[in-house]
Design a protein that fits this description.
The chain has about 475 residues and is an alpha/beta fold. It has 14 helices and 20 strands. The longest helix is centred in the middle third of the chain and has 19 residues. The structure holds zinc ion (ZN).
Length: about 475
């Protein structure tokens, strides 16, 4: 059973009425995109989970019939008969194809594409300028069935990105057919990656990872792939102008079944963009903006051949995408097992779970690695200076109504080592994201978690030598105890 958030989408026309004057110098162009992004952002959706039908309604409303530079067509249906659309813009000779959300739970670029379309729709002067040079083809949400469930695979449970050869998914067939018909010079394959990726060993998150996919096991470089690499370098420069050090180079192992690798082989310069994590960007709205800059910046660069000045060497100089990033890293903690004390670091990350009592998705933080994590990094780091870890205790009574709950003093409970309250009452009067809210679990039965640290929920306290609690960690949030 999968529950969907009920979201009310109000279609406003506010996004379609602003027109800013935009410079024609590349650096100025990018700067203005960055600084005036709020004019172009389609604010009807600002969460990574949304209803696909709402998305399509917004898309239809953006593609105004009177704007002759755009057209929107139905190009096929998903396995569950959901519409898949193609937006076409411009009449230039340079053909650029972009598709998003081939993996249903990777929606960042779908939202950025709305912003790109909104920009081209508003900035008539620029739209005319681009439309003479390029033809842009966009397939937003290639996998609407997966998107509906916010799941990676399509409704046949096949990973579309491993179906480029066998073509057993309708979605894969559509993408192949569009590639064959259009024969784009450039193809943008738009995905999301875990926020646990970092830019090499720099200690920065890989908010964007780029790849010029290989077309053989030897990872050969021909003219087609060279152009992909040059555009990847351009994207790095564009994004890092405003977000220093957040662009990594994705793993370039050849995958013979993947679309990116094959489209590169079929002769279109292919650019993979993976949207990763950024500081406190749980709905990925900042990374959405990075996508907006990357896509429009690439269009500008291609239209004017600016990417040609970038070298293959600078592509290989982009640090590799490495999985060494946590949400919270606590360094130098003492733990005790079988009366023996030893030193560890703790790596903590979250997963999202639907909470039926709260009627929303919540983040559940847990300990995912322990030991010497000195070569790892995190969005937040706490130096524990050899404080001693003790797993959090559960409040003995199950609370069933908000009045009882509000009588509890969370700081008092934490100073006794209690980090978790089991609550079965209403949520409507409770302040969200308060300390009390963080401590609440809605699990029906008292938690009997294993005493093992690995995979334990991130609920514990850190004590000094005198046994005094200095910090409590409540669902991954560090709280200083007064
Ligand atoms: Zn993906």
């Amino acid at each position: 059973m999968k529950k969907l958030l009920i979201t009310f989408i109000v279609l406003t026309m506010s996004n379609t009425s602003t027109s800013q004057s935009i410079s024609t110098n590349f650096d100025d162009f990018i700067s203005e995109l960055f600084h005036k992004y709020h004019h172009y952002k389609v604010k009807d959706i600002e969460t990574k989970r949304f209803i696909v039908n709402d998305y399509h309604k917004i898309l239809d409303s953006l593609i105004v019939k009177s704007n002759k530079l755009f057209s929107i067509d139905l190009i096929g249906k998903s396995f569950k008969q959901k519409e898949i659309k193609l937006i076409q813009f411009g009449n230039g000779v340079r053909k650029i194809l972009m598709w998003s959300q081939m993996h249903g739970d990777e929606s960042t670029a779908s939202l950025a594409l709305l912003d790109v379309i909104n920009f081209l729709n508003n900035e008539r002067h620029f739209a005319q300028y681009f439309s003479d040079k390029i033809s842009l083809y966009i397939i937003p949400i290639l996998n609407p069935d997966g998107a509906k469930e916010f799941e990676r695979r399509n409704s046949q449970e096949i990973d579309i990105n491993r179906d480029a050869l066998r073509l057993q998914t309708p979605e894969g067939k559509i993408l192949k057919q569009i590639c064959d018909n259009i024969k784009p010079e450039f193809a943008f394959n738009l995905h999301d990656q875990y926020s646990s990726y970092s830019v090499g060993k720099t200690g920065r998150p890989a908010s964007i990872a780029v790849l010029a996919p290989p077309f053989d096991y030897d990872r050969s470089i021909n003219e087609v792939r060279k152009k992909s690499m040059q555009v990847c370098v351009e994207i790095k420069k564009i994004v890092e102008k405003f977000y220093p050090g957040v662009v990594a180079r994705y793993d370039d192992e050849f995958e013979p079944r993947a679309f990116g690798d094959n489209i590169q082989m079929w002769g279109s310069s292919t650019i993979l963009i993976e949207s990763g994590g950024y500081f406190k960007d749980f709905e990925k709205q900042e990374v959405r903006k990075m996508n907006f800059l990357s896509l429009l910046g690439s269009i500008y660069s291609i239209a004017n051949n600016l990417y040609e000045k970038n070298s293959i060497q600078s592509y290989f100089e982009i640090p590799e995408n490495e999985r060494r990033f946590f949400d919270l890293l606590i360094r130098n903690v003492i733990v005790e097992k079988d009366s023996i004390e030893y030193l560890i670091d703790l790596g903590i990350t979250y997963t999202e779970k639907f909470d039926s009592l709260r009627n929303k998705y919540i983040r559940q933080y847990s300990i995912v690695d322990i030991g010497d994590l000195s070569t790892f990094f995190a969005f937040d780091t706490l130096e524990a200076n050899q404080l001693k870890l003790e797993l959090g205790k559960v409040f003995e009574k199950v609370i069933t109504n908000p009045r009882q709950l509000k009588k509890l003093n969370p700081q008092d409970l934490l100073s006794e080592g209690i980090t978790t309250i089991i609550y079965q009452g209403a949520f409507k009067d409770l302040e969200q994201n308060s300390l009390l809210d963080l401590m609440i679990t809605t699990t029906k039965f008292p938690l009997r978690e294993s005493r093992k640290l690995l995979n334990h929920s991130a609920n514990f306290v850190l004590k000094d030598n005198n046994g005094k609690i200095i910090y409590a960690v409540v669902n991954g949030n560090v709280i200083k105890i007064r």
